[in-house]
């Protein structure tokens, strides 16, 4: 690794070379990038200009921002001061009111076509969208204004991804996710309530390093985080496979850490990487299932905040464990060399003997049995 | 004299054989046995493959209820992995998967689960074939039970069951036949079979057979995709029900007519033949076999008559042999 | 003057020694089975619960042992007295065939200690075909030994014993004709309850009749087979002429069999399966071919006294009958995913049982009055067979 780059890192970020490399390696690992990507990330961060980020808040609880606040690698200060240029964020801004709005407009103008637009929260569409207004503009108007010159749009959290909690039936405000509002515009969605901050940060770092957003699925979710069901990586999966379930909170099975399927865990129908990277960097078990509460499927539209928490999940697909019986299993012992050989050998002997006997027939003493005919 | 008798006997023998074979072959003989009927208080199980998620809680519960030991089929032998019912496993769940196996209860590129355990037939082959009455069907509730104390281990039940249910223990010098007995020991103390008790989704239900049949009709009348309430544990237990969108079912209930009907019935989204349950006639194998036996041997009338003729012939043809044998 | 005499000569021959050895091996394996369980020796499993210990040792072996039955029918019921000389040797083979078949049942049964339940009224299930087969076979074993007692009486008994026997024997002869009719046909009925587990080319309501016809034919064939072997091995005069008379019964019986078998398949609409069933088609056609051989060979009157053709016809019939039973019970029986082929242990046990039959037959023939003595002018009655000459003849 180029020494200049490392020096630059040290000066710029105040990170030791080791800490910095750990960060890059962690980023690369989270995104499932190939070997050598950590070096690319290091170089990108050291040399590139910080991409500007405009962060909008709509119908949300700010939990997603809180989640970012708790990131550890990098810490928030490093993130917003050194990696990205956070040009507009209502929660973190010291300013408020017209000054804040003016700062936003200036940043958008100065970085036309280059800024990342991050949206947190759903957009109310009913009744002209009056249920969320900032600075006199409805969320819908604000979104459309900001998206015009954005280089990319990231929907942070379930609310922005598909409507989230505000969209729970009967959805009185018509809360809608960003992709549905901005039909046609590619939107990367990072669902979760809140999502793990590293899903978001990795996406940004990917953009920074490679100049484009990571591969996404049909719902715009980065595949490195949302391509597997929770059920597939769950640490309690072995209990599911062995049929061991907690029947009630606090019962014997629950205390032993058995599978929470019967308590309504939505792991089998929810895509997310929670069991893999957990939350809060505080060690194993730091996610809902790990603490003993069934997953509520917060990333999935139609599951999270829609399906009752204790209703049973429908498995989305099954990758059976080793040893799961199929309809027809090959069983029993067929012939082996020895047994078939023995049969063949005996048959051959008998055939040979029979042939010899047949050949010799007719050579016996001719006279008939003298008792024949006697009654 | 002897020529006439000889020819007569020969002719009689051939004619008798021909007559017997015709009697056996043509339908509607006097001794043809019809399928047995469903007992008055028949209880059974309903397994709905579209509700099953393959969690195997029923496999574990069956093991515990019947005190059978685990079977290891993976290299590391770490956990219980029965591949099929066996001399030590009375119930398994099997996985059907085709192509990409993306969609549940879909035949092509789909996956589904199916239970395998005793069907508790209305006219069981195993009961008919056991020479020592070790397999018996309860006349009231219809449960087919096995009595190892009577069993001689001939394995005719293993060979004749159309579903391949009774299994034998080949690995011990004191073997037993094993098969599901609907947890009759639990039913005796007011409980329900363990598989129905523990099933989280109500895929396995216990109840009176007539009640279960009504439930299958209800499910066939549901519109696919529309949420509906499904009972759990017993067929009438809607209070602890499980709501989910109804699946697209195969139009028939397996076990309604097959082999004269079975007390464990199946519903599925995938055709039953692909799940290891072949198409079977409505006429039970037991009735076919017993029809022949009864026709030939009812009251031992025919054998005694033939014996009479044979004794007469043998007497006639040996009485003059005097000193010499034969 | 007795019509039968012991053959005499030493019982220690190459054949009897090898047979004894094979049986000792089998005994060790059988003991192992009793100590460690069926699976320790045999490959039978829950897809194929009946292996060659049932299909060969019981089903085929008793069909081979129908010589006594066939001859009893001919001689005593149809009063063909001229076949007398063939009766006792046939009876002897039947005795051993059935007794050893019964013995095989004991070690094949998983819970053999409950074996007596079959005869006990509180356990009996008359609906079971196996119940009838078991009782019939057990009774018939006893009847066969009783039918053979005249030979014992001749060797060891007093004249009045023999006289008494002759007075009551006819009852047992009659039973000895009824019982095999019942159980040989029921060995076919056993398969009816398998329904579609047996391939449609073999599954039919005619199974009892087909099994009976083929068993009778196998009975006649085994008489020809053994008579030919004995003739050849002990250098006795040919019995071809007398054997020639019974070939016509084989022709009649097997013609009826083929008509019924193929006719039933056609009438039931299964004819399309004859050529569309892969390996099973081959087996089916092979069976028909083997059954056709005796008919074709023995139909022309001119061939009937030909020793060689008789022997070939008999062997073909025995092979065909065996193949029919193996196919009906094993080859055409299918359980998806299951495989079965007898293990070496299983095969050695079966071979040992066969060896014991041969051994016992040879001992009895030499020591008891079974065969008709041979007397030609000046020639000795007994021909000692030199060991070296054994190479030119069959294996026994």
Keywords:
heterotrimer; A: 375 residues; alpha/beta; Rossmann fold; Cytochrome-c3 Hydrogenase, Chain A, domain 2; 3 domains; five-stranded parallel β-sheet; two-stranded antiparallel ribbon; elongated; disordered C terminus; B: 326 residues; alpha+beta; Alpha-Beta Plaits; three-stranded mixed β-sheet; 12 strands
What does the model show?
The complex is a heterotrimer of chains A (375), B (326) and C (396). Chain A is α/β, with parallel strands linked by helices. Chain A has 17 helices and nine strands. Chain A has helices at residues 3-13, 17-31, 37-47, 63-69, 76-83, 98-110, 139-147, 157-162, 178-181, 197-210, 223-226, 230-233, 237-241, 252-255, 274-277, 288-291, 337-360, and strands at residues 52-57, 85-89, 115-120, 123-124, 133-134, 137-138, 150-156, 175-176, 187-190. In chain A, the strands form three sheets. A five-stranded parallel beta sheet of chain A has the order 2-1-3-7-9, sandwiched between helices. In chain A, strands 4-8 form a two-stranded antiparallel sheet. In chain A, 42% of the residues are buried. Chain B has a three-stranded mixed beta sheet. In chain B, strands 2-4-3 form a three-stranded mixed beta sheet, with no helix packed on it. A two-stranded antiparallel sheet of chain B has the order 5-6. Chain B has one domain (43-286): Alpha-Beta Plaits, CATH 3.30.70.20. Chain C is mainly alpha-helical and 396 residues long. Chain C has helices spanning 14-36, 52-64, 67-77, 84-108, 129-156, 159-189, 207-233, 240-267, 273-276, 279-298, 307-331, 344-367. In chain C, helix 2 packs antiparallel against helix 4 and helix 5 (129-156) packs antiparallel against helix 6 (159-189). The chains are: A alpha/beta (375), B alpha+beta (326), C mainly alpha (396). Chains B and C meet through helix 1, helix 3, helix 4, strand 7 and helix 8 of B and helix 1, helix 3, helix 4, helix 5 and helix 6 of C.
